[in-house]
């Protein structure tokens, strides 16, 4: 079984009817990056940068961040890496004192891009390190917890300013650094048609999207099965988001845990998804599932999926794949 799976390292992630699906890796360590490379990932679709801030009580300066991002870029040998700006807060604990100590509801608090925009000094330091790493290979910037157009406009303005400054200082910076948003706050998904033109790419964070859409804490075991992507509201919002992106030619991936679960592959393909970002641990299983799917047949069943009224219906739909 393991041996058979291992043979897929060198095989394409191609459906039975010949469509290539892009498999990006989620990574946050040197080992993840090495695994992603060895497994034939298209690139890194989600590089979580929190770990740089969690290890010590001191904030990593520009040089320390540059070292991490440059290692990532060089480790992927020319494949694109997607660096997510700091997403501290809520479930991502913090020892630096950056996040507020006593927020009454941290999941709805000063986190993700909100914190970055409130602390422009920190944000600029991170953007400078990312932009300098782009001198070594293709880099994209991904902004977490976006809920409005203004946030992405503000982030882009800061990135452009930082790139200009670095070039003036004599650093090599890529000509273009695509900027994307995590779609993980329901408001961003619903308002997307109004600001998708401001994005170069999208990545759907189902971990948080499910939490906020269903009002179910992603880490509260007492809620059991209530935390699930198999809810008609989740399916509907995934469908609409993917369709908006495809209609405007913007690359769109799912980077939440959902994308790393082979059981959900037919569902995501039916909804039009052609890019997955997942931890290397399940990349071969997901590749195998993709290679067993007929995309044309799945798309033809998308309407039936969208008509399902509850979890049992969606599970029934999946069983027939
Ligand atoms: C998500 O929310 O789906 C996601 C990928 O990011 P994180 O799990 O880091 O919040
Ligand atoms: Mg998230």
UniProtKB/TrEMBL annotation:
The EC number(s) this enzyme carries: 2.7.3.9
Localization per record: Cytoplasm
Keywords, ordered alphabetically: Coiled coil, Cytoplasm, Kinase, Magnesium, Metal-binding, Phosphotransferase system, Pyruvate, Sugar transport, Transferase, Transport
GO cellular component, one term: cytoplasm
Catalytic activity annotation: L-histidyl-[protein] + phosphoenolpyruvate = N(pros)-phospho-L-histidyl-[protein] + pyruvate
Positions that bind Mg(2+): 184, 208
GO biological process: phosphoenolpyruvate-dependent sugar phosphotransferase system
Molecular function per GO: kinase activity; metal ion binding; phosphoenolpyruvate-protein phosphotransferase activity
Record-annotated PEP-utilising enzyme C-terminal domain positions: 3-293
Domain of life: Bacteria
Residue numbers annotated as active site: 255 (proton donor)
Binding site for phosphoenolpyruvate: 48, 84, 207-208, 218
Task performed by this protein: General (non sugar-specific) component of the phosphoenolpyruvate-dependent sugar phosphotransferase system (sugar PTS). This major carbohydrate active-transport system catalyzes the phosphorylation of incoming sugar substrates concomitantly with their translocation across the cell membrane. Enzyme I transfers the phosphoryl group from phosphoenolpyruvate (PEP) to the phosphoryl carrier protein (HPr).
Record family assignment: Belongs to the PEP-utilizing enzyme family.
Name of the protein: Phosphoenolpyruvate-protein phosphotransferase
First and last residues shown, out of full length: 248 to 568 of 568
């Amino acid at each position: 079984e393991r041996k058979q799976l291992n043979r897929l390292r060198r095989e394409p992630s191609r459906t039975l009817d010949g469509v290539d699906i892009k498999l990006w890796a989620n990574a946050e360590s040197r080992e993840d990056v090495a695994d992603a490379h060895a497994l034939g990932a298209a690139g890194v679709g989600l590089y979580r940068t929190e770990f740089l801030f969690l290890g010590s009580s001191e904030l990593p300066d520009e040089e320390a961040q540059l070292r991490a991002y440059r290692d990532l870029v060089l480790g992927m040998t020319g494949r694109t890496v997607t660096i997510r700006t700091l997403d501290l807060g809520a479930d991502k604990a913090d020892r630096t004192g950056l996040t507020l100590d006593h927020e009454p509801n941290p999941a709805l608090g000063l986190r993700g891009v909100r914190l970055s925009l409130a602390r422009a000094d920190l944000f600029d330091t991170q953007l400078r390190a990312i932009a300098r790493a782009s001198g070594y290979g293709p880099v994209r910037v991904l902004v977490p917890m976006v809920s409005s157009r203004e946030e992405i406009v503000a982030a882009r303005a800061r990135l452009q300013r930082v790139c200009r400054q670095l070039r003036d200082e004599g650093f090599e910076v890529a000509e273009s650094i695509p900027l994307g948003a995590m779609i993980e706050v329901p408001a961003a998904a619903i308002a997307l048609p109004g600001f998708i033109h401001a994005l170069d790419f999208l990545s759907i964070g189902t971990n948080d999207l499910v939490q906020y859409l269903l009002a179910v804490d992603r880490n509260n075991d007492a809620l059991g099965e209530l935390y699930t992507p198999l809810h008609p509201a989740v399916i509907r919002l995934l469908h609409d988001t993917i369709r908006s992106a495809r209609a405007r030619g913007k690359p769109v991936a799912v980077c939440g845990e959902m994308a790393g679960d082979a059981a959900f592959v037919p569902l995501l393909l039916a909804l039009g998804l052609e890019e997955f970002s997942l931890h290397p641990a399940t990349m071969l299983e997901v590749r195998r599932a993709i290679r067993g799917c007929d995309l044309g047949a799945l798309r033809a069943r998308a309407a039936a999926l969208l008509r399902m009224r509850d979890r049992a219906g969606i599970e029934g739909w999946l069983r027939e794949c």
